[in-house]
Amino acid sequence: MICHIHSSGKQKMDILEMTDIEIYELGIKELTKQLGPAYTEKFLQQCKPSDYDYTAERHKLLANQPSIDKIVERIHRREVERKEEERIKAERVAAWRKGLLELTDFEIYELGLEILADKLHAYGYVRFLQQHFKHLNNNQPIDSPQQSVPDGDINSVA
């Protein structure tokens, strides 16, 4: 694994130079550290590709476009709602960290995605999810990283 030393003296892993397995293991480690083993398992079970057809939904939305004024009004209203949702979410996560409540499955999913995005950034986040989906497609245990195959060596794996 490639690491760089920052001026702060801390090591920084270079996500761009890590293998898919290294990224996956780093993601699992960070999820377990922040969520604990039980919530990490719940998160990974929920984390799967969706078969939702966004194209059909988009066509419905575009067919009934409101005026620009209505769109602007909705954007402003949604921004106020989003800020309130973020405040409530932060309070719930803080209460969970203090052991005062259990998170819902959706909260676990959102928090897990945030943890991965913060730790792995966009590129590593996508690679983590791709690696996880490979596990799901191969029916491998969720917490066991799949062995990577060098490019061009697909037929050499038994």
The backbone outline, from C-alpha atoms, is: globular
Radius of gyration: 20 Å
Instruction: State the total count of DSSP E strands.
Output: 2
Sheet of most strands: 2 strands, antiparallel
Q: Hey, roughly how much beta strand do the residues contain?
A: under 5%
Neighbour order of strands in the largest sheet: 1-2
Q: Total helix count? A: 5
**SSE string, helices as H and strands as E:** EEHHHHH
User: What structural category characterises the helix and strand content?
Assistant: mainly alpha
Mean pLDDT: 80
* Distance, first to last CA: 26 Å
Question: Share of helix among residues?
Answer: 55-70%
Q: Which blocks of ≥5 consecutive residues have pLDDT under 50? A: 1-11, 146-158
What would you note in describing this structure?
- There is one protein chain.
- The chain is mainly α and 158 residues long.
- It has one domain.
- The protein has 5 helices and 2 strands, in the order E-E-H-H-H-H-H.
- The protein has helices at residues 20-35, 37-46, 54-63, 68-97, 105-137; strands at 3-5, 11-13.
- Helix 1 (20-35) crosses helix 2 and helix 1 (20-35) runs antiparallel to helix 5.
- The model is unreliable at 1-11 and 146-158 (pLDDT under 50).
